[in-house]
Amino acid sequence: MTSVPPDAEPHIRAVQAALATxxxxxxxxxxxxxxxxxxxxxxxxxxxxxxxxxxxGSPGDLSGTLADRYADIVVPVQLTAVGEGxxxxxxxxxxxxKALLTAALTVTGRRVWPARQxxxxxxxxxxxxxxSLWIATVQYEITSNPA
Length: 147
What we know:
2 helices
């Protein structure tokens, strides 16, 4: 029996690790000042990196039984793919989806179920930054219970 709710943060780090492993194998986008492949950041991206995926996590939702009300956690995660055009943002979002939906996420002391996509939006132009960038967002759920 668990006595405290599980943390969402290790789940978000597991998503970052899975994305980093897969995205690093992609060719470096032209004009990128960062290393090979596309980087995966948690929360924010460096201003200079306009070819990346940003992970936005949440504290998650808890569920369980009367015997162990904190056993399970569902962590909503949004991936925001950033590129210079709509095709690029969509391609990065597609690569991130392949990485996340095929990865075996690892969280110490937890059994993590395969990620599940729950929503997406088509690429949109972000005029709040200069130069304007394109973003494509996809939302997932990561579920785990005690191992």
